[in-house]
Amino acid sequence: MRRRTWAAVSGALAVGLGVIGGELSAAALSPSVTPVSAVGSAVIDGLPPGVKDWAIAWFGTADKAVFLVTIAVLIALLALAAGVLEYRRRFAGRAVVAGFGAVGALAVASRPQSSLISFVAPVVAALVAVLVLDALVRALRAWQQGADGAATTDRSPARRRFLQGAGGTAVVVAATGAAATGVRSSQSTVTRQRSSITLPAPTEPAAPPRPEGSFVPEGAELEIPGISELVTDADDFYRIDTALVVPVVDPAGWTLRVTGLVDREVEITFDELLALPLIERHVTLACVSNTVGGGLTGTARWLGWPVRELLARAGVRPEADMVLSRSVDGFTAGTPLEALTDSRDALIAVGMNGEPLPVEHGFPVRLVVPGLYGFVSATKWVSELQVTRFADEKAYWSTRGWSERGPVKTSSRVDVPRPNADVPAGDVVVAGVAWAQHRGVEAVEVRVDGGPWQRAVLATAISVDTWCHYSATLALAAGSHTVQSRAVDREGDVQSDADVAPAPDGAEGLHTVTFTVT
Ligand SMILES: Nc1nc2c(c(=O)[nH]1)N[C@H]1C(S)=C(S)[C@@H](COP(=O)(O)O)O[C@H]1N2
Ligand SMILES: [Mo]
């Protein structure tokens, strides 16, 4: 192999070992801020508005995986370049690698959950990478300088020394890399803490219990193959957040503080929260980035304590009109005060579908506010409610081009038939879900091939805060057809047929599905 290739390999090995060393020390010292995740999160926070929209549109909930692979490829390219630079000029590659370390440290500094100890990891990473790069490139140079002399052959000691050094480093990279992956999964401390929690029974159930053990009212579920589950499994529930690495929050150390425009600051612990009278409610969450017909919406049965009760304990000052909820990782959402204090049951939620919140969905505690998109209300891993005014504070997405207010728009989706499906001739069933959170769905209509709107059968709603099943049976001739649906809410507003993109306050349009009757 050419010497330059070996120099590049040296760079990759040195940086690889440095990154792993940094991640391992972070796992031991400050698991919620590792250098790589800090750089990733800092990049995510700094991305221009619209990129998130684009990433979600292209990769959906796989956006994080795609992003991590992109980061890995970029680091690898820079590492290869650092090796070649160091070989050409002493210190040049090491300077690049030290620069990496500095970027890592700056990124760590930008993370709200970092503390002094979090800076150990980027320093370890940079030191390891600089030392290994220096040692390998020295050995490579010794080999090359030997090659200029007469005595070197394939069995030259200098060549052997370099290859042994590089091989040894590669073995250590593989071994510690495996160890680092193991450590990742042993961040199952939080998983263990989660499984040791016993949630109290709600003092008010989500619905009168039914003999079959179902938690939804009679007549709410239509038994149609292919229709969305009325209550979404936690495993199937969409996940959207800016957290590259899921925040690790120990419930024993968690508190929720109410600050800002209040008579007195209050703080509650997880145990205190569980001891309060908790209620259970079905609520449909929706992401403002959801496109027409998209999957970034779901319904769950949430267990929690009404936010208004906690706010009442603190005593909200009359001039306040917004609550800025903050998560442990610095994400913020700005929710109109009235949505948290009116008769709707905005919850400080601890349970999802009868279990403690899944880690990805905010364990141990998140907010759930009926009627509002997640970006202005549904703060996961929540740690503070700052009572304030829209005029004084801007939330995470509102500083990035998205709207300040985010009421969910009246919408519907066609689940059946699937796009491009072949449907046997005869009665064709069109079915799906419709939602208009906190206003309630009044009716759903469907139309075929742009024809007249026809009333669909609307299932019993769980509540005004959830989506509802609908279906219609149509006699259609053989051939290709398109079907569309539209919802009408109980305020009389009809789902918009305008073609509006998600930014800045939610998509509009009619979901259109084309299929063939055979
Ligand atoms: N801490 C935190 N909470 C967050 C977010 C986030 O990025 N960080 N994203 C919000 C957005 S945009 C949505 S749509 C919902 C999604 O909740 P889910 O992932 O449980 O479906 O969480 C909200 N809560
Ligand atoms: Mo969202």
Automatic annotation (TrEMBL):
Ranges for region Disordered: 184-215
Pfam families for the chain: Oxidored_molyb (PF00174)
Chain intervals with Low complexity compositional bias: 184-196
Oxidoreductase molybdopterin-binding domain location: 245-396
Any one GO biological process: sulfur compound metabolic process
Transmembrane segments annotated in the record for this chain: 65-84, 91-110, 116-137, 162-183
Highest taxon listed in the record's lineage: Bacteria
GO molecular function, one term: heme binding
Identification of the protein by name: Molybdopterin-dependent oxidoreductase
Species name: Arthrobacter bussei
